[in-house]
Amino acid sequence: MEEKEKNMSSDASSGKSVNLSLSGMTCASCANIIERTLNKVPGVKKASVNFSAEKALVFFDEKNASKKDLIEAVAQAGYKAEEINPKDSEHESKKREKELKQQFSKFLFSAILSVPMFYFMFFDFIEGFPGSETLLPYVGIFSLIFTIPIQFIIGASFYKGMWSSLKMKTFNMDSLIAIGTSTAFFYSLINFIVYFSKTGSLIGLEGMKIPELYFETSAFLITFVSLGKWLEARTKGKTSDAIKKLMGLQAKTARVIRNGKTEDVAIETVAHGDIVIVRPGEKIPVDGKITKGSSAVDESMISGESLPVEKQIGDTVVGGTINKTGSFEFETTKIGSETVLAQIIRVVEEAQGSKAPIQNFADRISAWFVPAVIGIAILTFIIWYFILSASLTFALMAFTAVIVIACPCALGLATPTSLMVGTGKGAEYGILVKGGEPLEAACNIDAVIFDKTGTLTHGKPVVTDIVKFSETKEDDILSVSASLEKLSEHSLAEAIYSHAQEKNISFSEAHNFQAVPGHGVQGAIADAEYFFGNRKMISEVAKINISKSVEKEISKLEGEGKTAMLLSSKEKIIGAVAVADTVKETSKVAIEKLKKLGIAVYMITGDNKRTAEAIAKQVGIENILAEVLPEDKANEVKKLQDAGKKVAMVGDGINDAPALAQSNLGIAMGSGTDVAIEAGDVVIMKSDLRDVVTAFELSKETMGKIKQNMFFALFYNVMGIPIAARIFVGFGLVLKPELAGLAMALSSVSVVSNSLLLRFFRPGKKNYLSLVAPYVMVILFTLLFIEFARFSSGM
User: Fold this and answer.
1) pTM of the full structure
2) What's CA 15's distance to the chain center, in Å?
3) pLDDT digits (tens, 9 = 90+) for 292-315
4) SS3 of 3, please?
5) Bridge-partner residues for 296, per DSSP?
6) Annotated catalytic sites, by residue?
């Protein structure tokens, strides 16, 4: 069996974890540097850095490492890290807003200083352009003055980033931009100094400008990269909309009764056991249990169901949901990070900060990409200058164009941006995908096993028949059965006990009670020993033969999809109680859709084969795993895996934990329970099996988008580098470095924009915009490259 890789290894997940917010990253290589740095810290078990989310999820041993050690390690690598405060719901939005302002300020500053040089460019194209006769001799000195602050103030971050990468003995995007702009700037500066040493003049002589100066190349390059970074930051901010929406559901205050007085307090000050008052139309602040009053509550935030849910005394309420009609009081049971909403936010944040295995491919490429590009750029210079005898200026501009056009940013953004939008979209539909690994695993699933009780069915069985096999009255059969089952924890036991209560049947005290797992229960009532359970309980434990007439009656009930349990004394079979669990309305539809996706569907249950077949027939399942004990469910999953199947297990997460863990993909049907949120790789927040189909559809579309992005990023580089190297100069295609920088910046924006198309995902519907748009982008980008090159050749 090919063991499933979990989001974090069990060894890692057993340690303490911390979410760090990162600053200063410019590309995927930066993320790799921070990740390697964190993984080298003694005591760190696993660190995962998400470039797009700008977060690091670190598992570490508190005995050997501290949060301070992690933050200092990031600082030593040349970046900034701070722990994310779960109570500060606006931290990320504030950080994004600050980053946007900084990026825009950098772009605006460099753009303002670059405008005069853009104006100077027209002197070369249009003879007699206004101001050319007066200003032409001053172009060189003015360009130098305007470029210095761009190069060393705005461009300082590139030098800082390059230095950080060099300390780690690697290169990143900052290295490329720093090398490219420095080449253009210092080549121009040297020519300016040489001209001054020969002429003693800082301006051009005889009304001409100083030749061989390319300060504008450096200035425009930094300006265009700053523009690209600003656009990228704006677009990336939209990928985390799901988190913003979830955080927006959190209440800010609560109306609490303290010392007999009602007061409004900040949500952070609410304590366990506080009595909270909720009026019509108000948001429920935290989780709790109703102690007074009743109402209808809109729980669409968790379940996705638009209809309000009636709530009475004793019912639980969830923070973030909306009270509709009545007023009520409730006692708080969960606060802060304990609440269901906080857990959902945590799951989504960790998912968006995780990596899909396919990201490893991008990481491997990024690792050698920058050094390879520098090598290609040097080779380009050598061929043009030493072999083809091109001018030094031509060869250097080709070198610079190659350096700045090839960037790992687009490749680094391909996976995390899609992952962020995809997991966020899932959360909108009440589907929590716990990271990239489950998302990718879902695409490869070819078999799904559904637990019957509570998954395919409502999980609330009711008594349908009481059958006599002796003179004992039906009420007495029910009384003995209910007296035994009163002590049992099985879901069927509750149905029998509740039915007896409804009929006002008297109960007797059961002594020497014993539950026989997978078979039934036994106990003594009024000095008589009774056995209650399935056939094996009667034949193997009670040692009583089952007659043909009893077998015929039991088989008839099982053929109707009912579970029949026999009651016997030590001597004979007394009667039987039949219980049925109704099938969910959406189960059959979901099974049909899964089959259309080419997925084999199985049902697993502890029921006997005949009962299981009756239920399976109702929902359209042909593959049945019946009479499986709870502890054997994982073995059944393993058998299918050994047969070459990639298996998803769907259960409630309570008694299916081993099977969920064994499967390639564990899907827990949650209804917002803590157990389910912890148990599955994917958590379905409402009890609708159609959401299982939606989870598969979403995973396929998200992974398809990741592959589109990777193709787009690689295509961009494969196409752009030869044009930048001026291989097609014979066709009139010569790409100037500043336009190469603009193209590079736009490629990253295009990848993020393509990921954002996942926001148009709708369950059961084709996202045609998402299918067509990438190919339109490729065509437009190809045309853009060609036009840039043609424009450059005329400059």
Assistant:
1) 0.72
2) 22
3) 999 999 887 665 555 688 899 999
4) coil
5) 310
6) 451
